[in-house]
């Protein structure tokens, strides 16, 4: 079941501003589905993705492996594409992830970003002769969706491709790791929230959450992101 319910963003709004209206819609749908015997996988693609993923899990009562959100996978693919353009190398050769909220507190995990074992920052320096401006790159990825939305009033192709890729990996049981929104129960020292983390996908949904060893600054950013997610979970009707 792919959940895409929700309203359109208005100028100046963030994804978190959609919470109240979207949560009411989800609350009217999920209990009815469960009462009719649904026992499949929920893939949440509506915003704010991590908070709604948590809400769907709570309302459904399903195992956490069967509830996930598109999370930061679209942001991750955008990061890889931007790096690929800068490095003049295929995006499929880049190993890099965004973690945390699908929103303003997301961040790239630079300590685990590489091209066939060569750190991204080192390769960037070699290829361009310049140091990689990590904050500028992270900010560009963070704002890219809003730039697209401002230009044409929607971002349907990016999220549609993300949904299709996640579904394909579940249906085929690929056991590929994608950065999706997962219900955390002790991973990364977090419980009581859903957040974007690398997870192995199989036909039953989330087979395994991969715990990366984060650098000190990355851990602080992840904690900040979790705090924002939990604060908004507390706002759920």
UniProtKB/TrEMBL annotation:
Transmembrane segments: none annotated. Residues 74-234 form the Lactate/malate dehydrogenase C-terminal domain. Its EC number is 1.1.1.27. It comes from the Bacteria. Keywords: Oxidoreductase. It is an enzyme of class 1 (oxidoreductase). InterPro entries: L-lactate_DH_AS, Lactate/malate_DH_C, Lactate/malate_DH_N, Lactate_DH/Glyco_Ohase_4_C, NAD(P)-bd_dom_sf. GO terms for molecular function: L-lactate dehydrogenase (NAD+) activity. GO terms for biological process: lactate metabolic process. Residues 4-69 form the Lactate/malate dehydrogenase N-terminal domain. Catalyzes the reversible oxidation of malate to oxaloacetate. PANTHER family: L-2-HYDROXYCARBOXYLATE DEHYDROGENASE (NAD(P)(+)), L-LACTATE DEHYDROGENASE. Belongs to the LDH/MDH superfamily. This is L-lactate dehydrogenase. It comes from Klebsiella pneumoniae.
